[in-house]
Amino acid sequence: MEPSSVSPHTPAGVGDNRLKVLEATMKRNQYRPDALIEVLHKAQELFGFLSPTLLISIARSLHLPPSRVYGVATFYHFFSLAPQGTHTCTICLGTACYVKGADSLVTAAERAVGVRVGNTTVDGKLSLTSARCFGACGIAPAVIVDNGMIGHTAPADLAARLVALLASPSED
Ligand code: FES
Fold it and tell me: Atom 1, ligand 1: which residue's CA is nearest?
């Protein structure tokens, strides 16, 4: 039986392989319903939070009722169902990106926005997070800012981009 795949309507930008990485995680677990927690962890690691669309897609892929998936996602405090900040910056710390200097990106980003990875700026404008692999190792080091993938990222460029984001008015 062919398992259903993750919906293309899940939030993702052009060149964004996060859905493929999530799909690979589910496939490795043979789309078993008991892999739900692992899959939710992976989804949060990739996207920073679990949107309703993402939860529904996961439910479909794992052959679980959406209510069950939603229930598990809300039960555990380490799952977040909404982005903390208006903007998000996720720095990949996977091996390929690390080798290409992801740690320098972390340092530059933390200095630029004034919070450590895993936190949101006090004005609620930006959440700084990390992930383990976007499936875009060929353009390492990779960063995703507001669902837009940036490859071959230079620390100074990332810092400038984040400072500009913080200075700009909020937008939809
Ligand atoms: S290790 Fe960063 S995209 Fe794969």
Answer: 94
